[in-house]
Amino acid sequence: MLRAKTRSVPPLSTPTLNLIAAFDRHLLTLDRLSAGTCRAYLCDTLPFAGWVETELSDLMFSPRHLATPLRTRYVAYLERLKLKPASINRTLSGLKRFCAWSQQTALVAGAAVQSVPFICLLPAASYPMPPRHLTDQEEATLRLSVTHHGTLSDRATVVLMRHTGLRASEICQLRWHDVTLGQTGGSLWLAGPGPRRRTVPLDPAAHEAIRVCRPVLPEPSAHLFSSPRQGTVLSVRALSHLIRKYARLVDLDLGLHDLRHRFGYVMAEQVPLHRLAQLIRHASLDTTALYLRASTDLPKENEKIAWR
């Protein structure tokens, strides 16, 4: 069964459903793709297939349709739906993934798909906006809020998000057997996506936060953090509520991902771009470069290499 939730999709023919189900199974075999990314690719492919079968009522969907003017007509259709240019480009990126799989499985000749380049709707000067840059003062204020009003577990949660750059889902899934603590540092072992595991280093601040709150955290076989009300595994929604609760206490407007972005901005001033991408686990250096583009120190860095 297909796992994607998409905008309204008309009934698809059985061969088309079988084709996209095979694509779904292929996505699940790719170690570097998370479940959310796989769903996004399906959400891009299913509506296009439904649109093709509606637009060409006498034809079933085929990967070959991506090599015809139908793709341009589909972009125009998405624009009529008032989708933003960035959303349309993301959809085309998902369809490109489907094309690559079609070529690998010999469903369509590579030259046929590559004959029409994908359309870039964003002007060269219109790059995605960098994430919000949490200031030093805002970070200090949030830290004081959770220190004065929160539990040791809550403080450890906030410190880990700030000092490791972990995604919210990764924080929620941490277990005690994933944690290694040394004298002043340590590491976390994270699963996936896929069967692979990776190590995330703990700096002294993250190490100390876990060490101090360890006696009050659940037994070693359980997750590090649990929902304070239900005693179950901490959900992403509960984690978002936790961050916003302590932010509101000090009149800050913070979102769930602001601490991860804060980690990205701080590390961007200390490590090369490719290393930052490894630390924050970005698949694309273009995404990581957003932290560099937003740095207020770039003009100063430029002065260092200016001709004299």
UniProtKB/TrEMBL annotation:
Core-binding (CB) domain span: 14-103
PROSITE patterns listed in its UniProt record: CB (PS51900), TYR_RECOMBINASE (PS51898)
Segments crossing the lipid bilayer: none
Pfam families: Phage_int_SAM_1, Phage_integrase
Entry's Gene Ontology BP terms: DNA integration; DNA recombination
Record domain Tyr recombinase: where: 128-304
Protein name from the UniProt record: Tyrosine recombinase XerC
Organism: Deinococcus ruber
